[in-house]
Amino acid sequence: MTAALECEALTVAFSAAVVLDRVDLVVAPGEVVAVLGPSGSGKTTLLSTVAGFVAPRAGRVLLAGRLASSPRRSLPPESRDVAMVFQHYALWPHLSAVDTVAYPLRRRGQAAPEARRRALQLLDRMGIAELAGRRPAEMSGGQQQRVGLARALARSPSLYLFDEPTAHLDTALRGVLQDEMTDRRRADGSTALYATHDAAEALAVADRVALLRGGRLAQVGAPAEVYEQPADLWAAHLTGPASVLAVEAEGVTGGRVALTVSGERLRVVGGRAPGGGGDVVLVRPEWAALGGNLPAEVEQVRYRGPHTDYRLATPAGSVDVRHPGMPAARAGDRVGWTLHRVWVARRATGSPGG
Ligand code: ADP
Ligand code: MG
Question: For the chain, which end, N or C, has fewer CB atoms within 10 Å of the first or last residue's CB respectively?
């Protein structure tokens, strides 16, 4: 099957500064790939290059198998079957919400009443049907962002480019957007590249997550893969909370890691990132638990609603533990703890992202 999007050794530079460095990324039709990276890592630049707003210095962009961008040749944005939802809602100041959303439908030849009906439906889906007559200046930031989303959804492109689209949305509406994308993928195989700096969001929306570090892809994999098997310490911290145990992995065989923690020899579920070199033993908060033989003192307790986060001071270092439900211990308590999974990652990669 022809890929929906292929970035081949894509390199983008602004004067001397290389902002994307030989990015290789293939997105299959119907796939949602999250681009997860900290601020300044190049997410917006990557999406803008795919959209055709920025030309590459080297490499190529192919859309549905056809060359869209190279240093010598670039299709204009309006000739690409993509819709970008910007981080900062770019709405026309003189158009009402309903006219804004109806515009792409009218351009595709829909009659005015039909386009208006569909636009109202999309505004309703975004929870702002009652604001249909308002212009951007009469709406809050979050409301404008919803209009921007509805406009992109109205275009029904082959490829959506979402640039941190939920920065101004509450949790419920994030869910609505995710449901809408799921429905569309089922109906017409919509594909998306979804930029975010929020690990939980990336893991929730995507089929695969691409970790972007200083303009280079550091790791690409399924959500569970980048979360449970981060390549290095940087990838581990980007994808969620992780503690580093001050112990060494003594051996990794048969999906188990042997290690000695506080004098106790353990063999727990886990593995090791390929490549090796300066390994560190990582623990996600739900891979450890209160109750067990290992000694600790509770340093901090944070009640989060569905679960409680504990920080334990242990002879093997500070360990964060997450438990469902209400706090079961207080700061200063001496407790036992246990470990049922670890991951041995590289301390650092040779070069940023390499
Ligand atoms: P992100 O979206 O991940 O925060 P960006 O793609 O916006 O990252 O920016 C990546 C890097 O490129 C940053 O260092 C930023 O300052 C730089 N940059 C982005 N756009 C331009 C531009 N038009 N001219 C010069 N530098 C830019
Ligand atoms: Mg950005």
Answer: N
